[in-house]
Amino acid sequence: MRVFAVAEIRLGELDPVSVELLNLANSVKGDGKSEAVVIGKDVGSFAEELAKYADVVWKIEDDSLENYNPELYADVLLQLFEKEKPDLILFPNSSRGAELAPLVASKLNAPIATDVVGVDVKDGIKVSRYIFQGKLMVDIMLKKAECYVLTVRQGVFKEGEETNGEIVDAGIKPKVTPRREFVGIIEPEVGEVDISQADIIVSVGRGIEDASNIELAEELAKLLGGVVAGSRPVIDNGWLPKDRQVGISGKTVKPKLYLALGISGAFQHVMGMKDSELIIAINKDPEAPIFGVAHYGVVGDLFEIVPVLIEKLQKIKG
Amino acid sequence: MKIIVLAKHAADPESEIHLKDEKTLDERGLVFDINDWDRYAIEEAIRIKENLGGEVVVVGVGKSDDTLRKCLAMGADRAIKIPIDAGMDPFVTASAIKEVVEAEGFDLIIAGLMSQDYNNALVGTLLAGMLNVPYATAVTSLKVENGKIRVTRELEGGYQEEAVLSTPCLITVQSGINEPRYVSIMGIKRARSKELKEVSVSAPEGVYEVEKMYYPPVKKAEMITGSPDEIADKIIQILKERGLL
Ligand SMILES: Cc1cc2nc3c(=O)[nH]c(=O)nc-3n(C[C@H](O)[C@H](O)[C@H](O)COP(=O)(O)OP(=O)(O)OC[C@H]3O[C@@H](n4cnc5c(N)ncnc54)[C@H](O)[C@@H]3O)c2cc1C
């Protein structure tokens, strides 16, 4: 099989997920090839990096490709794919990959599956993915086709062998006039507290139910000498400032203690906290995926447990 | 401005998720409501209409009456139901919607970033490709400017991208873009006189075949049990052992 992996350059760096795509490509290619595609203005150094993991690296360079634009990127990819006829195309399930892949798939008439965590190529393409925000998994057989497109979850295909591939300049230039114009990148706001530097984090999820209950977490954090952070719904509801969001679209944290209160443990949250040294989760749902990453788990109501914990800590601290 | 909103009546991931057999969900424990991301989509559409006038048409695929009525009560002008069962297959859903919205015409389509049940994040994006219109996903703010749509969309790590799209175009919205309004009694009354039309389309053959559904392997955590008092003591003990207290 010819497996193409579309690399991602983000903020001037090659995202490590690009290598993960190639690990997957190498493991399913059989007697075919793993082929990376790298798109941008000046991508030589990225191509060299990718060549360590791919059989072939396709370089697509043009000044107009400096910034990601789905119409331009899809156009150059389609020019390449129409010529090279891949059997399987992999994108990262990143903000950009998840936007770009479906456009490419719809133009190639290729079945597409997203956020894939397992791929089996025995009799066609079978993928495994999570549904219901991580509560169930499903194996899906994709209908027989000439080409398939997958977006792949980051952090899953970390192991792989090194190769020594050749770099080819695809010589492709965009031919379309995009109807979407890139304006710029907006950097995250900087707040008073930098949760990414904190040793102790008390993190609250939707289970905290109301803005007024954040006090409970503040009190606990104060006693532990830590800071309060939250999952996305807490931030979306305006209960905590934006820079307190832990997760894929928020911050990555690595504290000595991460206390997760009423957080379900959706993948997008877990990506931001899974490397914490000690994770203790309190959740009333015994099936909550957070128990899959926590070191210690409590199945229970945070409103029954946290006040007792606060009281005991107050006694200890005098 | 004519805006089409896509709204799905979807099972809440917080409801009881059980399997009936290897391939089917047990529907008894499931609570259905408007897909969370679509609440933001309909709210955004209604706000644009309130500012600039125009029409908001909401489209639902499959069993969607309750969700379509909710959208009408929030302020949509009319609703279209496409009564096919697309199952988990976003290709079938997008193809069916394409037929309907092509006939309707539109300046802007707003969809949720993904559905809360199957998390494919594909119906909006596939539809944009099928309709050949510009699009942007995971939009966290939207402004109509001289007939164009200025958006910011979410990247990783708190970064955002700003972009401007010409119309007609399609947007998928991320949670937090606005604060969706509650459905008022007045809204519900007014919704009764609004049109909810059923249209039939030729559903294409699907590309997904569900082979197996199963519970993910979890439970890495060591569980702490007991009364709240005992649990608190145990947590304190763990923190002490680790030198965190
Ligand atoms: C592109 C994208 C990016 C995203 N980025 C992020 C991100 O950066 N960070 C992030 O967090 N999310 C992110 N999300 C959202 C993510 O998918 C989840 O929706 C979110 O993490 C859920 O937050 P939660 O766990 O607080 O809420 P829920 O999933 O609603 O979970 C609440 C939990 O609280 C428990 N609970 C309720 N009451 C109590 C109680 N009294 N005591 C104990 N437990 C209780 C419930 O059992 C439940 O498990 C993103 C989603 C997308 C699509």
Automatic annotation (TrEMBL), chain A:
GO molecular function annotations of the record: electron transfer activity; flavin adenine dinucleotide binding
Protein family membership: Belongs to the ETF alpha-subunit/FixB family.
Protein name: Electron transfer flavoprotein alpha subunit
Matching SUPFAM superfamilies: Adenine nucleotide alpha hydrolases-like, DHS-like NAD/FAD-binding domain
Database matches in PANTHER family: ELECTRON TRANSFER FLAVOPROTEIN ALPHA, ELECTRON TRANSFER FLAVOPROTEIN SUBUNIT ALPHA, MITOCHONDRIAL
Gene Ontology biological-process annotations: fatty acid beta-oxidation using acyl-CoA dehydrogenase
Domain Electron transfer flavoprotein alpha/beta-subunit N-terminal: 3-186
UniProt keyword list: Flavoprotein, Transport
This protein's record includes keyword Transport: yes
Keyword Flavoprotein attributed: yes
SMART domains reported in the protein's UniProt record: ETF (SM00893)
UniProt xrefs under Pfam families: ETF, ETF_alpha
TrEMBL record, chain B:
GO MF entry, a single one: electron transfer activity
Gene3D superfamilies linked to this entry: HUPs
Domain of life the protein comes from: Archaea
SMART domains per the UniProt record, alphabetical: ETF
Coiled coil: none
Pfam families on file: ETF
CDD domains per the UniProt record, alphabetical: ETF_beta (cd01714)
InterPro entries, alphabetized: ETF_a/b_N, ETF_b, ETF_beta_N, Rossmann-like_a/b/a_fold
Domain Electron transfer flavoprotein alpha/beta-subunit N-terminal: 22-204
Name recorded for this polypeptide: Electron transfer flavoprotein alpha/beta-subunit
Organism annotation: Ferroglobus placidus (strain DSM 10642 / AEDII12DO)
Classification lineage: Archaea, Methanobacteriati, Methanobacteriota, Archaeoglobi, Archaeoglobales
